[in-house]
Amino acid sequence: MPKAYVNRLDDEAREKSISLLKDNLAIALDLSFATKQAHWTLKGPSFIGLHELMDQVAMHIREASDMIAERIVILGGQPHGSVQAVSKDTSLDAYPVDITDQNKHVDEVTSRLMAFGASLKDALDAAGEIGDEDTADLFTEISRTVDKDAWFVGAHNK
Question: Which pTM value belongs to this model?
Fold first, then answer.
């Protein structure tokens, strides 16, 4: 394992945290691509508001993926952020690239944000159980933003 830049975590705890982080990195990058797909292609009466919101959500997810990837390196791991790795490692369903209806995009993005939020909460519990409070805190920070973005996007549909 490459050099780690943390104290008080043994190799086993670091490896478990790296695995949790890698799983969520794949989801974050996949979700970033999906949100940009919605941003580019949605159509409907709320176009401009949703177009701008999807761009903000994509930015939040990209920032989260950067924090996750950096934590992987800090722990002595190697992030896998290529399109091929993300496609193989994500737990999200493929985003439907043929939709344009804003309501369908809202539903698709909201469900993926909620799935990411659930994964983050599971990961923060697991990181806490192995004693990696910093990684658990990172997952908590990201999950707050993901939950808020799910609300902002999901509130567009009844």
Answer: 0.96
d(CA 128, CA 93): 28
**Per-residue pLDDT reduced to its tens digit, 44-61:** 999 999 999 999 999 999
**Domain topology for 21-88+97-154:** Ferritin (1.20.1260)
Angle at 26 between CA 141 and CA 28, to 5 degrees: 40
Strands of the chain (E only): list them: none
Domain boundaries along the sequence of the chain: 21-88+97-154
Higher pLDDT, 14 or 4: 14
- Cβ neighbours around 54 below 10 Å, total: 25
